[in-house]
Amino acid sequence: MVAVAPDTSAAEDRVSVASNWTLVWWRFRKHRLALFSAGILICLYAVVIAPDFFSTQDPELTDARQAFIPVQTLHLFDEGGFKPWVPGIVGKRNSVTLRMEWTTDPARKAYVGFFVQGYPYRILGLFETRTHLIGPVEANQRIFLLGSDRLGRDQWSRIMHGTQTSMTIGLVAVTLSVLLGVLLGGISGYYGGLPDQIIQRMIELLQSVPTIPIWLALSAALPRDWTPQQVFFAITVILSLVGWTTLGREVRGRFLALREEDFVLAADLAGASRTRIIMRHMVPTFLSHIIATSSLAIPVMIINETSLSFLGLGIRPPAISWGVLLQEAQNIQTLALAPWLLIPGLLVIVAVLAFNLVGDGLRDASDPYSH
Amino acid sequence: MNPAPPLLSVRDLHVSFAMDEGLVRAVDGASFDVLPGQTVGIVGESGCGKSVTMKAILQLVEQPGRIASGEILFRRRTGPAATDGEEVVDLARLPSRGVEMRAIRGAEIALIPQEPMAAFSPVHTVGDQIVEALQLHGRQWRTDGGPLSRKDARQITVDLFRDVGISMPEQRIDAYSWQLSGGLRQRAMIAMALSCKPRLLIADEPTTAIDVTTQAQVLGLLRELQRKYGTAIIFITHDLGVIAQMASYVVVMYLGRIMEEGPVDDIFHAPKHPYTRALLRSIPSLYGRARVALPVITGSLPHPFNRPAGCPFHPRCGDVIPGMCTTRVPSLQNIAARQQASCFLYHDKADPA
Amino acid sequence: MTRYIIQRLLLLPFLLVLFSIVVFAIVQAPPGDFLTAYVATLASSGSSISAEHIAALRHEYGLDQPMAVQYLRWMQNLLSGNLGLSLEYQRPNAELIGEQLTLTIALALLSFVLTWVIAVPAGIYSATHQRSFFDYLFTVINYVGVATPNFLLALVLMWLAFAYFDVGITGLFSSEYANAPWSLGRVIDLLKHIWLPALVLGIAGTARLSRVMRANLLDELNKPYVMTARAKGLSEWRLVLRYPVRLAFNPLVSTIGWYLPALFSGSLIVATVMNLPNIGPLLLRALVNQDMYLAGSILLIYCFLTIIGTLISDVLLAWIDPRIRMEN
Hints:
Structural class of chain C: mainly alpha
Number of helices of chain C: 15
Largest sheet of chain A: 4 strands, antiparallel
Oligomer: heterotrimer
Distance between the termini of chain A: 24 Å
């Protein structure tokens, strides 16, 4: 017991001098599932940075003769060693339905390599390269790791590009919401009076708006000749227009509560400026909470974007997002024929789940009163 | 001394909590008796196990805690009439959610909880919550064993309210707890506790959450009601002043162990255990010298996961015997005619580790 | 509280006027009008229409008037209970919306009921059996339920039903009842079809609600009044239902304020995917075709339903919580 005592006090010292962020990290680390989800999100954002690097084909490359090719399962071992390959695909036109029917032919193997040369692209628009993480060893072959759609486009590569759009839109829309929410909520809570009244009424008004119909109406109002970039930006703004209100309310509430706290009064009496009190004393107390709330708001944005695009009023082709990809799965007959078209949906679920788990983990970890 | 057999007899009670960080022994071998109509005070700092002892008696220890060993022998009535017999049950053996235990809770042993504010549900009227208890234990009021009608239960509640000194009982009975003042709330709580004529009342710091003037009234009320109904009371508090007013027998606890117990006069006038002495020294007195710092107990309460070896009090004790108190745990022994203490200053009997 | 609700009711007309302006601004915002869209549709199908005819139509519909005049005309009609004429269908909007609105509300309300019937017991079970197998199972279902977009779930169910059981699960009526007048048989037929879309619509809400219930109840179970009730000798399940569950209900009721409106507007997506008679798909089509009075009327109905949903939650909350009821 005597020997243990210094140890525990050393641990206690470590805890008592650790910064708030270190404490949050220590607590977050304990949530295994949240940590794992954070890993998934990092992978997804790696795709966001350079979707072409992860693609096996140009996502826009169409070939009507290769429509609805089923998933070519990736096999890792061949000839007694690590040598990834996918089985070849043989097509035969059904004389009755006139549809192409595809069968796999394991005898004809298409070998798959890593860091292979493929179609040229630019990373972040900066430097040009032909290197792809994964692709057929023989450059003229086409492989469909997740099948192809009705125009013979490779779903794997399209999903990579869809990931870029969908994950970015969630992040940007939430960033906009946070900026608006913190700014307006802060003004409302710190200054009170007339600004507070105006902002509160505005929030109430926006919160009694039926979100989905209004989003649809706004999206429908976007000019049809806008570029994909313009549409992307407009959709982001539309999504964050309502998103900021919840956060704005929360920030206002925090400011109202904190204004009465002794440490704010102490800072005031010590002659600290208003900006300094807000930035150095008040904001840090709820910053981690805001981060947790935002990470829970991103998945909502992703679902909303996907839904809008699925209905044809969000991101428009030729831009690719998960929702745009799922539009291909709208027809039940098509779906019965090519169920792999639902795979983008799986990705939506995985991404949203990961964000929710990370968000929950962060929220628990950022609560200074949990243990 | 007293010919009557004890109403409640706690024997070597151990309650432990299996936490992620390790096993916490919240009550570690407590033994004491409560005679019929007697008031026993349990005194100690927060975390000493006094509240857990109370919960154990009612079988209300919550997960992950459990009664590890020991006996809680209670003499329960076999019927409502005075002529009915009595039998001894070991509460520690009764299943917590079973019918038997539930028939004892409220009817035989009642509780006055710590915070009257939070102890009533805010969305039910006070009267409603008392009527519920009455109807549950209707046989305490109806000798024929039949159920108590709502109307009768309500009338009893009104009478009880009048008994505990609540004015306008007919109106107050339909009030919500947050509409009552702190003192009234505690009076209503006392009314609820007494509603089913229990023979033992456990008062868990009943006056900590209310202001001093009301405190005195509530204590006076409790004494008066005890005389009237002959209820035994276990009075839990950290306030030695309250103990001196209320209790006839005192149990002093520290870190889950009983340090000393005995009649109130002996404990206050001839404290034996260094912990009791230190506690008594730290009470401000009207007759003390002015501008002299009040003696305090040095050191701080150890963390429950970090219990010191040997006597739990030894790191803060002025009379510590090196090699003795630091390694062995003193057991509770008779050290005077009616006084017991667990301290090596008076005997050398240790508990098995 | 009563004062607060009366205040809200008095505010309702003002809110609706405000919304009507916003709605009108949005529906007429797309460049061109219904006729440009109409001409484009005609052109894509190979037929054409003379310029004079278009000008005549434009004048007839009042589309050549200034915005403010168009808005005032719309408002004037609305106030006299006339929702206007659908430019596309050439039928009164009220007629178009009529039955679909009933079915929209029915779908949302049924979904709401299903949500509560499932979420509340699941939440209670999870909280009282913390860390049990079913608690973990519910938690997993909840996370996945929240993460699955409505339309995706609908799509998967429709695909499974079609591909493996060879049944269609779209629509709300069997073919023989689709256009029949209301009868007992039609209601039964409706009930046979509506539960699945209602479930799909409510899945995310059910997941969220049962988590709210679980968290609230866990909080309440640690409150001192629970100990008081136990010390009275109440049986455990009766005690849990009578006290902590009752209190955990209050925050749950306050979720109605956002949940009911979310169901009304969320039904749009499910209805579109599952091809249900609902004002959602009608709105979608009206938006695409720039049938602005129809779109505007539907949007205004959504606004109205949203405000009503919030109001219902306030009234319910005051009704069940004496602390709110007895304020001032």
